[in-house]
Amino acid sequence: MSQIDILAIGAHPDDVELSAAGTLLKHRSMGFTTGIIDLTQGELGSRGTKETRYEEAQAASEILGLTDRVNLKMADGFFEHSEENLRLIIEQIRRFKPQIVLLNAVSDRHPDHGKGSKLASEACFLAGLRRIETSWGGVAQEAHRPKFVYHYIQDRYLKPDFAIDVTEFVEQKFDSIKAYKTQFWDPSSSEPKTPISGEEFFEFLRGRMAEFGRSIGVRYAEGYTVERLIGVDSLLDLR
């Protein structure tokens, strides 16, 4: 099993692709290893099934070039902030030992996003406490706390604390999103319309990235919020 440098966690399959795929693709091109943890199977979604969502997630993972992807199979819509669920995430953090973790938006239209964000953020902290005992494959795990925890921005607009230029990776990002064929625009689909299934949704995504990009002088960017003040070595590190 390989260590994962940058681990993204989402409440549902496709959360990460929609908001942070460009970031993962860019850093993979720089030599970093990347992975995703999905908290639920998205079984309450109006379109598709948990089985098709799983197949689509695997296809998206291939496009993103992930080192690993794990689904924790928590209850979609009903997962709780419990010791059991915290331990599930702690085990994966200690298993992959990421330095950077990307989490759901702190607040969003779907309540699972904010709920998953808080759950995973707390797990990142608790994973560093050595007196919390966990094991993987029958072997005791060492404590590990990620160095950085950032939150990607989803449906609801949040002012980012920083943004990453993903201009070169936008089309590949859209390829990973479109791997979820049951969830997005398909004129031949007879399934219910949802806030993300309309043809205009891709225009919204591109517009959001263009807005963040314009703010930092590039064409497209993905925005993030932080849990603590970011430090830099000098003013020259800022763009």
From TrEMBL:
Q: Which InterPro entries match?
A: Bacillithiol_biosynth_BshB1 (IPR023842), GlcNAc_PI_deacetylase-related (IPR003737), LmbE-like_dom_sf (IPR024078)
Q: Which GO terms describe its molecular function?
A: deacetylase activity; hydrolase activity, acting on carbon-nitrogen (but not peptide) bonds, in linear amides
GO terms, biological process: bacillithiol biosynthetic process
Q: Which SUPFAM superfamilies match?
A: LmbE-like
Residues of the signal peptide: none
Name the UniProt record assigns to this protein:
LmbE family protein
